[in-house]
Amino acid sequence: LAVLTTSTLPRWGGEILSDHLKTEARAARHLDLVHPNAHLESKGYPVPKATKTGTTICGTVFKDGVILGADSRATSDNIVAEKECQKIYYLVPNITCGAGTAADMEKVAELISSQLELHRLNTGRSVPVVAACRMIKQRLFNYQGYIGAALIVGGVDSTGPHLFEIHPHGSSQTGMFCTMGSGSLACMSVLESRWKENMNLDEAKQMVRDAIKAGITNDLGSGSNVDMCVITKDKVDFIRPYEVVCAKGVSFLKKNSLTVTPSWIPTEVIPSAEQKELDALVSKCQRNEEASRKLCRDLKKYCDTMSSLGKAEVAMTGDLSSSSMCQNDPQLCHLVEGYHALAQQVGQPRCCRAEP
Amino acid sequence: MEAPMELLRQSINPSFTMNAPDIMPLPSFPAFATDFKSRTMNPITTGTSVVALKFDGGVMMAADTLGSYGSLARFPNIERLLRVNDSTIIGASGDYADYQYLRDIIEQKVIDEACQDDGFGIKPKNLHCWLTRVMYNRRSKFNPLWNIYVVAGLQDGVPYLGYVDKIGTSFEAPQVVSGLGGYLALPLLRDAVEKKPKMNQQEARAAIGDAMRLLFYRDCQAFHKYHLGVITKDGAKIEGPFEVDVNWDLGYHIHGY
């Protein structure tokens, strides 16, 4: 299915606008794809539906800056497409954004990041967070909600820490804490009950971790790890993963502390006294078995050699008795024939069965 | 019920009209709906979430006192918790009329049980099971009771908490929340119980209070007053109405958009 897109222009924007083309076309809208899309539609290639991915992202302002948190599951319908996907994108040294519900968020983030860098070079100053918010907002509004990016932009600039949440249609809100995504309600429950002014770093980190964890455990579209990004005036601390919430074989319910990462190696089982005795007996048995096997092999070998010896004796005496030396000496002949008969008798295989 | 035309025809004895000329035909009524079977198509006056959790020694349930009429906060002082007997309380969310209907039936059941005077009363599991069958039956007839019921009580001394839907979904859980509270309050209650599995009554009250405050903040149809139902071995009691303590100081920090 050949889809006409550029890297940034969505298909759907044009499709809907084509209906209102004559009445509502405005200069700011991108209308290049209206006719090609309409043509394709008429030929039976319908507009692809944007797939929604579940997510929990949140952000909060604390005493020294901003913390953004996110889960790390990317879903495609009912399958987990990626377990460790990164939802926190880096825009400029002092601003990052948490991506919400769509994959074209990445492209938006890249575009805005480059525009912000140009802004920074042009003005010679660090970029204010409102600039990022405004650029993203204007872009999303242009596409009337067809770029399905719902995001939280957070950062620290010369005026202090800022946090904005931006919805796909281009509306933005500022606040002290915000959540987005399918797990946003669960996440909001934690933030609403525990947020207070001027939290210190550890408190804030614990709160964000608990909030994302609530989203991960109560929402099916979110899962895997908690990623966190702490932005202060001096630095950006990108902790990924902050915590593995649902590791295989480890119940997160038992882990309470902030910094525990569950290990994948199962703990050593310390054997009890009886276990030790049993182990000793088992090893003894094994040794005995080895020895008896070896014995059997040796016995078999012995029997084989004996039988071959017997055969050799028979052959030898036979040859000797029929040799010229025997013909000449009747005493020797008699001796040799006696030996030959005896050898034949003994050479019968009797007790040489080696039973292992 | 059939159309009025038919009723009229049936009311006139055919022996009078047999073989008579049709000099005065029956009046024709304007066409109107003949399907008088009433089916619940959508709820009218609704109650929002009911939150409940089990604690060490009993169960606690809360429901706010608002009956919403669509988006209008029409009845600010209704009671959505029903004390059935000393060991059971049910909370209802959804259509209030359907709850009132069922409430009358349940109260009559309690009276009947008292009349039997055999020392037995309705136990929570019994009521839950009965409710499930009623709801499922109604749903199967395409005429549901548009409610979600939360049944709480002490079943032989052990705390019991159950949920019944308008389509007959029923289950038992340590925390049960109906409606939008399932997204908002349930994570909070689960977290609180995870941190302290054996809560006492005070802690349970605090957790429920937290949940009701959160719902008032984030649910459009919630209210700041609520009733609290507590069932312990000492009996069942509905307290309240309590008021949610809200803090809007956050507004001072918000500038711009």
From TrEMBL, chain A:
Keywords: Cytoplasm, Hydrolase, Nucleus, Protease, Proteasome, Threonine protease. It is found in: Nucleus. Gene3D superfamilies: Glutamine Phosphoribosylpyrophosphate, subunit 1, domain 1. One of its GO terms (cellular component) is proteasome core complex. Its EC number is 3.4.25.1. GO terms for biological process: proteolysis involved in protein catabolic process. PROSITE patterns: PROTEASOME_BETA_2 (PS51476). The active site is at residue 55. The keyword Nucleotide-binding does not apply. GO terms for molecular function: threonine-type endopeptidase activity. It catalyses: Cleavage of peptide bonds with very broad specificity. Transmembrane segments: none annotated. The 26S proteasome consists of a 20S proteasome core and two 19S regulatory subunits. The 20S proteasome core is composed of 28 subunits that are arranged in four stacked rings, resulting in a barrel-shaped structure. The two end rings are each formed by seven alpha subunits, and the two central rings are each formed by seven beta subunits. The catalytic chamber with the active sites is on the inside of the barrel. PANTHER family: METALLOPROTEASE TLDD (PTHR32194), PROTEASOME SUBUNIT BETA TYPE-7 (PTHR32194:SF4). This is proteasome endopeptidase complex. It comes from Darwinula stevensoni.
Automatic annotation (TrEMBL), chain B:
InterPro entries: Ntn_hydrolases_N (IPR029055), Proteasome_beta4 (IPR016295), Proteasome_bsu_CS (IPR016050), Proteasome_sua/b (IPR001353), Proteasome_suB-type (IPR023333). It is found in: Cytoplasm; Nucleus. Keywords: Cytoplasm, Nucleus, Proteasome. One of its GO terms (cellular component) is cytoplasm. GO terms for biological process: proteolysis involved in protein catabolic process. It holds the Pfam family Proteasome. Non-catalytic component of the proteasome, a multicatalytic proteinase complex which is characterized by its ability to cleave peptides with Arg, Phe, Tyr, Leu, and Glu adjacent to the leaving group at neutral or slightly basic pH. The proteasome has an ATP-dependent proteolytic activity. Belongs to the peptidase T1B family. PANTHER family: METALLOPROTEASE TLDD, PROTEASOME SUBUNIT BETA. The 26S proteasome consists of a 20S proteasome core and two 19S regulatory subunits. The 20S proteasome core is composed of 28 subunits that are arranged in four stacked rings, resulting in a barrel-shaped structure. The two end rings are each formed by seven alpha subunits, and the two central rings are each formed by seven beta subunits. The catalytic chamber with the active sites is on the inside of the barrel. This is Proteasome subunit beta. It comes from Darwinula stevensoni.
